[in-house]
Amino acid sequence: MAVPFYVNARALGKSDSGIARYTAEMIKQLGDDAQVLQPQQPRNGIGGHIWEQVTLPQQLPKDAVLWSPANTGPLRVANQVLTLHDVSVLEHPEWFSPLFATWYRFLLPRLVSHVRKIITVSEFSKRRIAEILGVPAEKIVVIPNGVDHQVFYPRKHSEIDLAKAEYGLGGDYVISVGSLQPRKNLDRLFEAWQQVAVKFPSIELVVVGVEDQVFCNRGFKELPSNVRFLANVPDADLAALYSGARVCIQPSLYEGFNLPVLEAIACGAPVLAAKTTATPEMIGDAGISFDPLSAKEIGEALQTLLSQRELAKGLSIKGLEQAKNYSWEKATEATLEILKASR
Q: What secondary structure does DSSP assign to 178-212, as a single string?
């Protein structure tokens, strides 16, 4: 049987980013509906771009439909659907390494005009792609990310206790998840945490994430008390940590979707999140929002939710309902429809 679609899977294995997770989850759901094409070994930087621009087009049969799910794709392939998660690299190049920002400033305007269709993950990203890159709105389709409900669900107390013991967490904690990028706004979170730690000295702030070479160096000057960094946490442990958290806080300045928030509410964590970019449209009334540019407001929101258990419980219930609207199965079905229409 002929393979109907091909997937540009260069993003697999690069990092534990949201885009890498998206790519992996969608490929898992596609199964035999797609042929995965990727370098024999993970390639970052210039080597990855050379593979994508030169080698990948040579591996495609004539008239094949290529899906590029990770913000980038080969310029030589016109019969292509691109998933463009956001345009943060164009709006805020200062958050990225100069070489990375320069390449995407060259690539994206040419790529979006060349491909058949653009998928993006939120109405916010659709508006920004249309405005910044001049793409007609009818060329852009919004298909939200999903969540794996077989992994991210409220875990039992025994599982939470095991995860806490594994990572040395003795008491209550607040969790924040995401790669250590400038836009994740950890500096203001740490400033806010200084206020919180005075009132709640026994609660730890747990930051789960890893550094990514394409972003500017974080270089935190000073960490407040009761802050813990964790890296490379497996999904099952992450679900348990979400489930046991007093609060999940995501203070990011810019998100095309905000997958950690979705995974957190699917685990029943009460969520505080920035009221900017795409996060409000996906979380609805299942969380409390704040101005991410105000450390004072971040701190006040944290103290409110830590002080009011009933409020936190109500948000947890709403979050579980909101998370039911999202699944990788839904995202895959909608993506397949776009790919079929692009033949």
A: S---GGG-HHHHHHHHHHHHHH-TTPEEEEE----
Cite the beta strand spans of the chain per DSSP E: 5-8, 34-37, 65-68, 80-83, 117-120, 140-142, 173-177, 204-208, 227-230, 247-250, 271-274, 287-290
At 202, phi and psi to the nearest 5? -90, -5
Q: Which amino acid is at 214?
A: V
The fraction of the chain above a pLDDT of 90, given in percent, is 80
Reported as a single tens digit per residue, the pLDDT across 178-224 is 877 888 999 999 999 999 999 999 999 999 986 544 444 455 566 77
Position 54: which residue type? V
Q: Is the pTM of this model over 0.85?
A: yes
Apex CA 148: angle with CA 147 and CA 154, to 5°? 95
Tokens matching residue 66:
């290529």
- Tokens 């009933």 identify what position? 310
What's domain 5-146+327-341's architecture?
3-Layer(aba) Sandwich (3.40)
Sole residue written with tokens 């091909």: 6
Burial class (CB in 10 A: 0-12, 13-18, 19+), 286: buried
**Residue 293 tokens, joined:** 């540019």
* CATH code 3.40.50.2000 region(s) in the chain: 5-146+327-341, 157-323
Give the pLDDT confidence score for residue 223 in this predicted structure: 73
Q: What is the pLDDT of residues 136-183, one digit of tens each?
A: 999 999 999 999 999 999 999 999 999 999 999 999 999 999 877 888
| One-letter-per-residue 3-state SS of 11-63 | CCCCCCCHHHHHHHHHHHHHHHHEEEECCCCCCCHHHHHHHHHHHHHHHCCCC
Fold of 157-323: Rossmann fold (3.40.50)
Angle at which helices 259-266 and 309-323 pack, to 10 degrees? 110
Contact 50, 65 (CB under 8 A): no
Element (H, E) at 286: none
CB proximity list for 209: less than 8 A, separation 6 or greater: 177, 178, 179, 180, 184, 229, 231
